[in-house]
Write a structure and sequence with these properties.
By secondary structure, the chain is α+β, with helices and mostly antiparallel strands. It has 9 helices and 7 strands; from the N terminus they run H-E-E-H-H-E-H-H-E-E-H-H-E-H-H-E. It has 3 domains: 57 residues, no CATH class; 87 residues, Arc Repressor Mutant, subunit A, CATH 1.10.10; 61 residues. Helix 1 crosses helix 2, helix 3 crosses helix 5 and helix 7 packs across helix 9.
């Protein structure tokens, strides 16, 4: 029997992967320039299970590591957006995961990606993150800095949770009407365009 992507067993397998991340280590042979993956001793595996138990006992840690398992890489702003946790909670969870050696810095964003005067933002990644996932995180971080984009995502999410729950298509006119009904302070066509773009990226067909 083939399991669907949303089947509970797949979520179990995802957390078993978490055990694997905790319970394996990389050994580098400098002579042969080869990387070996070796199982740790029983003592270390027990410690790995303790780490997993600590993660699962904390909603903040669970939501944060689940985001990394799903997308591979993220900034603090992205984690806050996807988990709906506060900035303080995200910073704490990310530091904890870094201390556990489950995530690591991938790169820093160029200075023109954020307001002047602050430190360069770090993109954090799982060890197995793909280059494309890091690029996606950099782009999403840039988008999330736009108030218009954040509002458009909220509009799109409300449609996905309601009108689009049973189907994957919508007309552009329906998007415009939805935006108008919210009486936002932003220009309606701007928000409608960004909403349509986001929905398209989520696999929704937009009829114009």
């Amino acid at each position: 029997m083939k399991l669907s992507g949303s089947h509970p067993h797949n979520l179990v397998l995802k957390w078993l992967r978490m055990v694997e991340l905790c319970g394996l280590y990389y050994h580098h042979n400098s002579d042969e320039n080869t990387i070996y993956i070796s199982e740790l001793s029983g003592c270390h595996q027990l410690n790995s299970l303790r780490i997993l138990a600590r993660i699962l006992s904390s909603e903040n840690l669970t939501k944060t590591i689940a985001c990394f398992l799903e997308y591979g890489a993220a900034t603090d702003l992205i984690l806050q957006h996807r988990t709906r946790l506060s900035g303080q909670a995200i910073r704490w969870a990310r530091k904890e995961l870094y201390t556990m050696q489950l995530i690591e810095p991938a790169t820093r964003l160029p200075k023109d990606f954020f307001a002047k005067g602050g430190p360069r933002v770090k993109v954090w990644q799982l060890d197995a993150a793909l280059p494309g996932q890091i690029r996606d995180a950099m782009l999403l971080h840039q988008r999330l800095q736009s108030p218009k984009y954040r509002v458009a995502v909220e509009v799109a999410q409300s449609l996905l949770d309601g009108y689009l729950r049973a189907k994957k298509e919508i007309t552009y006119r329906e998007i415009v009407l939805q935006v108008k009904s919210l009486k936002l302070s932003f220009n309606t066509p701007d928000i409608a365009d960004l909403t349509a773009q986001y929905l398209h990226e989520q696999g929704v067909r937009i009829w114009r």
